[in-house]
Structures are given as C-alpha cells and as structure tokens.
Design a protein that fits this description.
The complex is a heterodimer. Chain A contains twelve helices and 15 strands. By secondary structure, chain A is of the alpha/beta class. In chain A, helix 2 runs parallel beside helix 11, helix 3 packs parallel to helix 4 and helix 5 crosses helix 6. The radius of gyration of chain A is 21 Å and the shape is elongated. Chain B has a single domain, classed as ABC transporter involved in vitamin B12 uptake, BtuC, CATH 1.10.3470. Helices cover 73% and strands 4% of the residues of chain B. Chain B is built from eleven helices and four strands. Chain B has a two-stranded antiparallel sheet. Chain B has a two-stranded antiparallel ribbon with strand order 2-3. Chain B is globular, with a radius of gyration of 20 Å. Chain B starts with a helix and ends in a 14-residue tail after the last helix. The chains are: A alpha/beta, B mainly alpha.
Chain lengths: 384, 307
C-alpha cells in the first residue's frame, strides 16, 4: 500500500466519522429539540452501547414520524449520541459536551459507574437524565432532582436473586466474583445481604475486572472452597468466558448473574457451558407487555436482535417526550415536574417514578438458559 | 496441593501467550530501540483473520483439522503483511526523528487498527467454533485440556525456533549486527531496511499465532482484545529485560505465574486483608521491585545478545 492510498483511506475515515454530525438548519417554524444519548460505543461493551443507541434512535424516529406538536409548534427531535467508553472520567467529559450542546434531556448513561459522576453535571445544569440501565442504588440517592431511571435498582434485583438462589435453588455455600465496577460490586453486595439473610454462607469473594478474559486463577481459588453456587456481578463479555472456564476446571457450581448476563451474547460466548446458567432482568418479559411484541418485531427488522437494554431506552425516550407533551414545553425547568408525576405505559413496565426518581413497583424476572436460549423462570415483585 | 498445581498450570498457559507476544515487543526494541505499541492490535487482527478464515472454510465443508492450519497460515500471512506495512508507513519515515515521534505514531496506528477492526468485524464478540473435542486430562488432581497442552508446547517450540533463527542463521546474524550498530552493519553490507522489515514480519507472525491461541482458549475474539494483552506482554518484556529474547520468554512465563499464584493465594496469605482485586497490583509490584534492583530487567544486561 502506498502512502497516498493510506492517506486517502484516512481521509475517508474522517469523512465517515463526521457524517454523524450533519448540519442542524431546519425549516423555519419547526422547534428543534435535542436529546442526548450516552453509552459505551467503543471498548468491550460496545455491543451493548450500540443496542442502547438503536433503542433510543427508534423512539426518536417514531416520535418524529408521529409529528408531535409542543407549544403550538411542530417538533423535530434530534439525537446527539455520545460515547463514554464505560469510563467514569470520559463520562463527565461527554456530559459537559451535551450540556454545552443545549440538550433538553439525556438518555443514559449505560453503566452505573458512568451514570453516577455524570449525574452531578446534569443536576448542576438542571437537565433531566433518565438512565435506561444504571442499577446502582446510589445513583438516585445523591439528592439530585434531575436523576431518573426506568429500571429496578440493585437492591430490588439483588434481593430477588439472593432469595431465589437460597430458597428455590437450595444454595448453602455461595461464592461471589465481582468486576469491581459500581454496578458489579453494588449488585454483589445486595445479593450477599439477601443470601445471608436467607441463611446461606458466603465462602469466597473474589474479584476480576470488566476487561479480563482469564478467570482461571480466581475460579481455581473458588474451587478450593467447594461452593454450590457462584454469583457473578458483572457483564456478559466476562460471564461467557467465565462459564466456559468453570466447565473446563470441572467446577461443579450453578452460575448466577444479574441483568448484565442476560444477553444472547452470553449464550454465544459460553457455548454449551451456558446451559443451566441463571440471570435476572428487571421488568416483566417483553412479550407479556402490551406493545412489547410489536416493539421487538420492529426493532429486529430495523437493526439486529435485542441485546439487552434497547426496550428500556425506547421507554426512557417516550417517557421524556410524554412529559414534554404534558407540560407543553421542551424547556427542562418546565417539563421536569411533569416527568416526576407522570404515569406512562411503556413496553417494559407501567412507568411511574417515586420521590427519588426510582421506578415504582420494580418487578424482577428470573431466567435460565435451556437448550441454548434464555427461558423465563418466574417474575417476582409487584408488577403493578 | 492440587489447587496449587492447578494454579501453576493456569499460570503456564497464560504465561506462554504473554511470552509469545512479548517476543514481538522485545525484537523490535532490540533492533530499533522503539516500543511498537501497535503490537497488541496485530495480535487482535491475527485472531480476527484466523476466525474469519476458519468460519469461511468450515462453511465450505473443509474438515476442521485441515481448516485450522490453513486459517492459521492465512492469519500469519495477513499479519506479516500488516507488520511490514506498519513499519513501512508509520516507523520508517521517522527512523531518524526524535524518539517521541515514532512512539506517537505507534499509538496512532494502534487506534486506527482498533477502529478499522471495529468497522470490519463489528462491535460484537465473535465466538470461536468448538472444532475439536477439547478433552480434559487429570494430572495429579489438576485439570488441563487439549488446547492448553497445545498452547504450551507450541509456544515453547516457537521460542526454540526463534532462538535458532537468531543464533544459527545468517539472517539472525544480520539482525544481531543491526541491533549492535546500524551504521556499522550497513557498512558491512547488511541491508538494514530488509532486516528491520523481516523482524517486524517475524514478530507479527508470532502475534498471529498468539491471537489464535488466545481466542481458541477463551472461546472469543473481539476488536478490543489486543489492548490489555499488549499491555501485559509489554510488562512481561520489561520484566525480563526489554531487548533480550530469553528475557521476554522468562518475563512472560513469570508474569503468568505471578498473576495466577498472586490471585489465588494473596487472600489466604494476608488473612483476607488483601483479596484478588490486588492481582494486577501484585504483578506490577514485582515489576517495580525488579526495576528498582535491576533497572535493565531480569536478563537485561547481556546487550550483545539482544536481537
């Protein structure tokens, strides 16, 4: 390859990269409302981030197709999608960027570890933020009026998982591995609390990172403690290889994960070692919700199979737009009170927020891999 | 005891991969005094190429035992071309520039490769097909499977082969000459550019093999997999004494063992005060200790032997 063809290639790359930001001039008389979306679009969780972006984009396309009017003007919603690389430092930088771009609201971030530091920036600038997927309890406990989420938190999820592990699966000696992120650690802590309260013993607590692929050392250490159930607090990209290595080391345990493990990617990566693994997902199974089947059908046709949080992103955008319509204003100061008191029938749940910005009710559904597919076991908690 | 034995096996498997990748860093450093930060990405491209070739070949009905070596050869060829290209485009024009300049292009190449791979192969994880019946063997209470045995044997074989090339062939002689003094070697009639290109290609071929090993062992390949692996392998190269081939092998195996024994025993040794979250700290602590007491790494002083 000559130097010139390489520079041509680079030029093409830059041109491609700048495609995302097209000019914003629109016909007069139209109100342009910018909605920010943040998720890791590069790095090990990029597949989940893209899924979030697609869910958000679909909701925005739907709203634009409907031709919504706010304050007597036809509205054109515009998506500004940012990449936080699942990194807390980058998250605050892109949050500031969105604030500078004068977004009316933010859908994000994906991870708890990025959502928590970004929340302060949105709060300081009075911009409402709805996270589709951050489950760490502390996110909504910082006293920010702008922080909302459309997913049950770790306390609700950890409790459901811990009780199920002990009462339904009969686990007595439990080993824990977490990935040291705000999400993994938070969920593992809540799980431990619930499992201990239900009478199980925690025999080991080991750690890994959200970028590792080798867990043989910690799994071997866990094996020495002879647990009957292993709980992993972390995402699918680690859970999949971990399931394989559990099998390779002949470690005889049931594997259980939170929502981060409930993806087709986990089953693909774990291969036949996925069989029998447990995971949970806040909310009611999609096909049991009104509009859920229609959503998943349209989503799959337009993009690719749902990874994880796309339906929650879709709901988050729709809740935000519903609040704008109710307040008849896209001004954050005006529509925020409407958001706090709204009741919206989404595809994942009937969404109402409590005083903290948490989801009221918060059902959690448990799943297990059977014949290479996640199958519903049962839904616990009020489905309201 | 069986837990201890299992940790040794875990460490050896992980360490052989580190060693293979570390060789790529150390060979380039030995000759050019340059740290090729794009090397981790070459490993990733090798894994991705091998996986794509494998999927295609199996799709055409080629038996797995034939498809595996063919796709490995294709990946090696692809990576050699890539290594050659990287040197030609990003490093050769800067050979006489200040040392910081090629370091920055190295990081640039790494980012470009990562993003190109993301565009070509997508953001999702690619599962490695389970081709052979990967049998587990019990050795004194510990478990080792076929893939892991192949990894350790292949890595040791490749290291021996590389040593033979460097010390027994005229090409190896030329490499050592260039490492010692570029200008003098040129005066003696050594084609310096050719030797440097070949060095990059050799390192990249090893990287392709390492990439295939990693993705077969963990069952996945991803455009981001080169980053952490590259960092760890670089650490291994420094630990052993960067620029020294034997040092890279020793450093790789040592780092693998330190990591697995550290993660496995640090909790019990400190009575739960420090847990496996300090796994990386442990590895880097050893690195710092080595650098303080032996700044050139474990085997770093034998400059005449560097390749």
């Amino acid at each position: 390859m000559s130097l010139r063809s390489v520079s041509l290639l680079l030029a093409a790359l830059f041109a491609l990269a700048s495609c995302g930001k097209s000019a914003t001039d629109q016909a007069a008389g139209e109100l342009i409302v910018r909605i920010g979306a943040v998720a890791p679009l590069t790095g090990p969780q990029a597949h989940l981030g893209k899924d979030n972006e697609n869910g958000t984009r679909m909701a925005i396309d739907d709203a634009n197709a409907k031709g919504i009017t706010i304050g007597g003007k036809k509205v054109h919603f515009e998506l500004i999608s940012e990449d936080d690389q699942a990194d807390p430092k980058t998250a605050t930088i892109v949050a500031q960027k969105l604030v500078d771009n004068k977004v009316a609201g933010v859908i994000g971030h994906l991870n708890s570890g990025t959502t928590i530091p970004a929340a302060k920036i949105y709060s300081d600038n009075a911009i409402p933020q709805i996270s589709p997927s951050a489950t760490a309890v502390s996110y909504t406990k910082q006293g920010f009026k702008t922080a909302f989420r459309v997913m049950a938190n770790d306390a609700q999820q950890g409790r459901a998982l811990g009780e199920y592990a002990v009462k339904n699966l009969g686990a007595v000696k439990i080993a824990i591995i977490d990935d040291r992120t705000a999400y993994g650690q938070g969920l593992a802590d809540e799980f431990i609390k619930a499992a201990r309260a239900a009478g199980a013993q925690i025999v080991a607590h080991e750690y890994t990172s959200d970028k590792s692929v080798d867990f043989t050392a910690v799994l071997t250490a866990v094996k020495g403690k002879q647990p009957d159930l292993l709980f992993y607090g972390g995402m699918d990209a680690q859970g999949g290889p971990m399931a394989r290595q559990i099998k390779a080391l002949a470690l005889n345990v049931k594997l259980m994960m939170g929502d981060g493990g409930y993806t087709p990617e986990f089953v693909k990566l774990a291969g036949d070692a996925a069989e029998g693994a447990y995971a949970s997902l806040p909310g009611v199974p999609l096909d049991k919700m009104p509009g859920g089947k229609d959503f998943s059908g349209r989503f799959v046709a337009k993009y690719q199979p749902i990874q994880l949080y796309a339906p929650y992103c879709y709901d988050a955008v729709n809740v935000m737009i519903a609040a704008m319509q109710k307040a008849d204003s896209a001004d954050p100061a005006k529509y925020m009170p409407a958001l706090a008191s709204l009741s919206h029938q989404g595809v994942t749940a009937d969404i109402q927020f409590d005083g903290n910005g948490d989801l009221k009710g918060g059902a959690v559904t448990l799943y297990q891999v059977k014949q290479g597919k996640w199958q519903v076991l049962e839904t616990v908690g009020a489905a309201k | 005891m069986e837990i201890f034995f299992q940790q040794i096996i875990n460490g050896l498997v992980q360490g052989s991969v580190y060693a293979l990748v570390a060789l790529g860093y150390t060979m380039v450093y030995g000759i050019l005094g340059l740290i090729n930060f794009a090397h981790g990405e070459v490993v990733m491209v090798g894994a991705m190429l091998a996986l794509s070739a494998l999927t295609a070949l199996i799709g055409w009905g080629v038996p797995p035992l034939l498809a595996l070596p063919v796709s490995l050869l294709l990946a090696m060829a692809g990576c050699m071309l890539l290594g050659f290209g990287i040197e030609r485009i990003a490093y050769r024009p800067l050979r006489h520039a200040p040392r910081l300049a090629p370091l920055i292009t190295a990081i640039g190449v790494s980012i470009v490769l990562q993003n190109l791979a993301m565009m070509i192969w997508g953001r999702e994880y690619h599962a490695f097909p389970q081709l052979i019946n990967n049998q587990s063997h019990h050795v004194g209470g510990a478990i080792i499977n076929d893939i892991q045995i192949v990894i350790i044997i292949t890595a040791l074989g490749l290291m021996a082969g590389l040593m033979a090339i460097v010390h027994r062939t005229s090409l190896g002689c030329a490499m050592r000459a260039v490492a010692e003094n570029q200008h003098a070697a040129q005066l003696m009639g050594v084609d310096v550019n050719r030797v440097i290109s070949v060095t990059f290609m050799l390192g990249s071929a090893l990287a392709a093999i390492a990439g295939l090993m990693v993705s077969a062992n963990y069952g996945l390949a991803h455009y981001y997999m080169g980053f952490l692996l590259g960092l760890k392998a670089f650490t291994a190269a420094v630990l052993g004494g960067i620029g020294n081939l034997r040092g890279a092998m020793l450093g790789g195996l040592l780092l693998g063992l330190i990591e697995s024994l550290g993660a496995g025993y640090i909790g019990d040794l400190t009575g739960g005060f420090l847990g496996s979250q300090y796994q990386d700290v442990f590895a880097f602590f050893v690195l710092i200790a080595v650098l303080v007491f032996r700044p050139s790494g474990l085997l770093g002083e034998r400059l005449a032997e560097r390749a």
